[in-house]
Amino acid sequence: MPPQEPSSHQPNSLFLYILPQKSSLKLTTIRTKSSLKMNLTKRKLILLLVFVLVGASLLRVLKITISTSYFPTSEMDQNTGNHPSPAYGNKILSEKELQFLSDIVLQKSPCNLLVFGLEDQYLKLPFINKGGSTVFLEDKPEKLIKMNGNVDGTRVFRIRYKTSAKEAYKLLKHARTHPSCSLRSGIRMLTSKCKIALNGFPKEVLKTKWDIIVVDGPGGDGPDSPGRMGAIYMAGVLARAGNNGTNVVVHDVDRTIEKWFSWEFLSEKNLVSSKGKFWNFRIAQKQKLGSLTS
């Protein structure tokens, strides 16, 4: 008979039998904890990614809000269905815009040049138009001192605007229906009955036959600002009384008022070129005025 294993070895056999079960349980527990950690890590990464995307979107919206000013919806926008464009507080022409305007002046220089608004970048226009006559019309007193030491043939006049941009649509309806506002009436027929016409113009401005008229004033960056309704209307009247083929150059045509009043009083069919926020119209003195928008 084979010798029997001592009884003292039996516990060891039991230990060897139980040990693999304990190791398996421990390994399963480790794997479960590892899986939970991985799931939690994935969730954290997803949440972090969501927060980053939301934060980036909020920063983008905030940047746009700060860089553009809000122009409340006016009666004009409600009636036309157009959304007002953001207004730009700082008047800075791009290089292409400035070159565009300079080229127009150079083509006719020396000439009679009338400018609504006195911005820093326009101080070079009298030098481009040297030998001609350059007149600025400005409503803000602090800007008038910019022309000290100006070149010969340059004048600056202060004018006052009694309208506000929020009245734009009412003024447009008035001009369309009131006979005294008809462009066919001419300068001599301008009266106080036409609410959009600008009063108190210097006689020198009214009597001169202008070759180029630039409209970049007064301010139009808010509902309580003067708006350029009257300036564009007067540019249309003066251009039709000026030299044959008067150029009217309007800035900020991305805004509702500038766009609609230019179409109304300068006529889209007279638009000959554009660059950036500039529209350049050429108005023929003897063109047949079949309607207000001619």
What does this 3D model show about the protein?
- The protein has nine helices and seven strands, in the order H-H-H-E-H-E-H-E-H-H-E-H-E-H-E-E.
- 42% of the residues lie in helices and 13% in strands.
- The longest helix has 58 residues, at 10-67.
- It has helices at residues 10-67, 75-80, 95-108, 125-128, 141-144, 168-177, 203-207, 229-240, 256-265; strands at residues 112-116, 133-138, 154-158, 212-215, 246-251, 271-275, 278-283.
- With 294 residues, it is of the alpha/beta class.
- The chain has two domains: 10-66; 95-283, Vaccinia Virus protein VP39 (Rossmann fold, 3-Layer(aba) Sandwich), CATH 3.40.50.150.
- It has a seven-stranded mixed β-sheet with strand order 3-2-1-4-5-7-6, sandwiched between helices.
Largest sheet: 7 strands, mixed
Count up the domains. Answer: 2
Strand order in the largest sheet:
3-2-1-4-5-7-6
- What is the CA-based Rg, rounded? 37 Å
**Oligomerization category of the chains in this entry:** single chain
CATH H-level superfamily of the largest domain: Vaccinia Virus protein VP39
> Quick one: how many beta strands?
7
Return residue spans where pLDDT drops below 50 for at least 5 consecutive residues.
8-19, 61-90, 287-294
Measured distance between first and last alpha carbons: 130 Å
Helix proportion range: 40-55%
CATH class of the largest domain: Alpha Beta
Number of helices: 9
Write the H/E string, N to C.
Answer: HHHEHEHEHHEHEHEE
Query: In terms of structural class, how would the helical and strand content be classed?
Result: alpha/beta
CATH architecture of the largest domain: 3-Layer(aba) Sandwich
Strand proportion: 5-15%
- Principal-axes geometry comes out as globular
Mean pLDDT value: 77
Q: What name does CATH use for the topology of the largest domain?
A: Rossmann fold
